[in-house]
Design goal:
Blueprint lengths: L6 H4 L15 E10 L10 E3 L2 E3 L6 E3 L3 E2 L5 E8 L3 E7 L5 E8 L7 E4 L1 E2 L1 E8 L10 E7 L5 E7 L3 E6 L2 E9 L5 E7 L5 E8 L4 H4 L10 E5 L14 E7 L4 H16 L7 E7 L6 H7 L1 H6 L10 E4 L12 H6 L6 E5 L5 E4 L2 H5 L7 H9 L2 E7 L3 H12 L3 E3 L1 H7 L10 E7 H9 L4 E6 L2 E6 L8 H14 L2 E10 L3 H9 L3 E3 L1 H5 L8 E10 H9 L5 E5 L2 E5 L1
Parallel strand pairs: 1-9, 3-13, 11-17, 19-20, 20-21, 25-28, 30-33
Antiparallel strand pairs: 1-6, 2-5, 2-7, 3-4, 7-8, 8-10, 11-14, 12-13, 12-15, 15-16, 18-21, 19-22, 22-23, 24-26, 27-28, 29-31, 32-33
Helix pairs in contact: 9-11
Length: 558
């Protein structure tokens, strides 16, 4: 069982869907040429490593990438998440397509993509085990042998149709309440239409338990409750069981949010409980603590998990092996997975903290705002339009964020103006808002109905949480570290240093908007086991750039 990643989860740029779930192996410059079957240049073709079918229109759209010029040439930067890079090109009419699979060793070489007529693949998804189609499903096309995926089609409509270049693939279909099905798929140029019929997705055991008493688990150990605890011991309370593992980034981030939730609803603890069920990949709770020591300092803000922790029995009864017997019995496929159980011990289904909150007395907005501003938010963004960014932050914090029209007018800012922020990190909401709004001369102001985006009245002060995080960053930079940067563009340096240090680096949005930072300036430098702050200073000094610590990140500025 593996955690499924959607491109939407990789960053905010695709529909502002959620947190980052994968760290790029590298940022590479991809360049090459798109030609037709006769070797002639194809202008206006789209080239990208990932494509998705729009759920509403059915149109095939690229995620990032570039269009070819009059000579069929293209060039763009790409974050690589897989051992190979699959570059798919489609002409403007989506009638011709080509695919070039580039191994890691050839990332720096020009790529040629040759177009040929597409093959249409269509069919239907269903589930005999559920007795009906799944509520939602997705299809991926992977290159063989499942090293890179380049096409996705997600929808509540179970009838699907997509077009792809001829070739050998693996079709991976999965969805809500079902297990995934993988099928080898050969698309031939002389067979332009392929009907896959109905693909049956087996029902997930967890789905078949909905509306029934939650079964007993097998635990290797527990903290905060007795090892023999069962759901029956929590009768009368709503119970959220959060299934996680120390190795899963989204899991530990979600646990940080659940710590916040637990603290916010302290007055209603008699009405609910949260249980953190760790998988069987550790031998005992002591090993789990050791594995999450860094997580506790950073993501959990120095806090212990305040709710009971359960440790699943390892697969085959061998602790430290696999995801665990309870997890396997429930056929849980994704991490994290949160389950809601009602006061009678009956499984409601998969859930989140927001659903649990609806079962509890509401907390007034005035009380929620301070905690919301300190809430940890992990995501990636790339100069997102202001209105969409605020909509996303509002959903993450469960706090209304209102764009004040008069303030926008006074600041000369439009709703669709970009924020100039390019960053993938985990920061407090306060820092995300500050970094997103500073370049536009805006700030947020608490009100009875939420947070209002208003014209900034002066420099922002750092909150106690921000100050503590900033001090920790300064201490980290004073310690020895190592990195090598060879003739990299400034805009790529934050990602390189993040990979080397685990900390968040970003180009100052204010300096970018003012034109004081040249994102394409070239820098080079290498350091081994030397203080990072001095090394970074030396790296940036030749181009007149310095670094400062603010908003829980290291900013490159003028």
């Amino acid at each position: 069982m593996t955690r499924r990643w959607t491109m939407a989860a990789v960053g905010l740029a695709l529909a502002l869907a959620g947190p980052i779930e994968a760290r790029a192996q590298a940022v590479v410059k991809v360049e090459g040429r798109v030609v037709d079957a006769d070797g002639k240049a194809v202008a206006g073709a789209d080239v990208a490593s990932f494509w998705s079918v729009d759920e509403k229109t059915g149109d095939l759209k690229p995620f990032g990438g570039a269009k070819t010029d009059a000579d069929g040439r293209f060039a763009f930067k790409e974050e690589v998440y897989f051992p190979e890079l699959a570059l798919a090109a489609y002409d403007a009419g989506r009638e011709r397509a080509g695919l070039a699979v580039v191994p890691k060793a050839d990332f720096d070489k020009p790529v040629e993509v040759r177009l040929a007529p597409v093959v249409r693949v269509h069919g239907k998804l269903d589930s005999k085990g559920l007795g009906h189609a799944p509520p939602w499903a997705n299809i991926y096309l992977f290159t063989l042998p499942e090293k890179a995926r380049f096409l996705s089609r997600a929808s509540q409509d179970m009838e699907f149709s997509l077009v792809a270049p001829a070739g050998e693939y693996v079709l991976d279909a999965y969805g809500s309440d079902v297990l995934n099905v993988k099928k080898p798929l050969t698309l031939k140029p002389d067979q332009p239409d392929v009907d896959l019929g109905t693909i049956d997705l087996p029902a997930q055991a967890l789905a078949l338990l909905k509306g029934k008493p939650f079964p007993d688990w097998k635990l290797a150990d527990a903290r905060g409750v007795d090892k023999d605890v069962s759901i029956a011991d929590f009768k009368g309370k709503w119970v959220l069981v959060d299934v996680w593992g120390y190795w899963c980034g989204p899991c530990v981030r979600q646990l940080g949010e659940l710590i916040d939730f637990y603290e916010e609803h302290e007055a209603d603890r008699d009405k609910f409980e949260i249980l953190a069920l760790h998988d069987g990949s550790v031998k005992d709770l002591a090993e789990m603590d050791a594995k999450t020591e860094g997580t506790k300092r950073s993501v959990w803000r120095g806090r212990d998990l305040p709710f009971p922790v359960l440790l699943d029995v390892g697969e085959g009864g061998e602790q430290g092996a696999g995801h665990g017997e309870t997890i396997d019995v429930l056929q849980i496929q994704g991490f994290p997975t949160s389950l809601l159980i009602d006061p009678e011990g009956v499984l409601v289904g998969q859930t989140n903290a927001a659903m649990l909150a609806k079962k509890l007395p509401p907390i007034p907005i005035a009380r929620r705002i301070p905690r919301a501003l300190d809430r940890f938010v992990a995501l990636g963004t790339d100069s997102t339009p202001l209105e969409k960014a605020m909509e996303f932050f509002s959903r993450e914090a469960d706090i209304p964020i209102i764009l004040d029209e008069e303030s926008l007018k006074a600041a000369g800012v439009k709703r669709d103006e970009k924020t100039w922020l390019k960053l993938g990190a985990g920061l407090s909401l306060r820092s995300w808002l500050g970094l997103s709004l500073d370049a536009l001369g805006l700030d947020v102001k608490p009100a009875d109905d939420g947070l209002h985006v208003v014209k900034a009245e002066g420099p922002r002060e750092q909150s106690p949480l921000q100050q503590a995080t900033n001090r920790a960053l300064v201490e980290k930079l004073a310690r020895p570290g190592s990195f090598t940067i060879e003739n990299a563009e400034l805009e790529d340096v934050p990602g390189i240093l993040e990979a080397a240090t685990g900390e968040s680096f970003v180009l100052d949005p204010v300096a970018l908007k003012a034109g004081r930072l040249d994102p394409h300036a070239r820098v080079s430098g290498a350091v081994k086991d030397a203080p990072l702050d001095k090394a970074i200073e030396d790296l940036l000094k030749p181009i007149g750039v310095r670094h400062v610590v603010r908003d829980e990140a290291i900013l490159f500025t003028k």
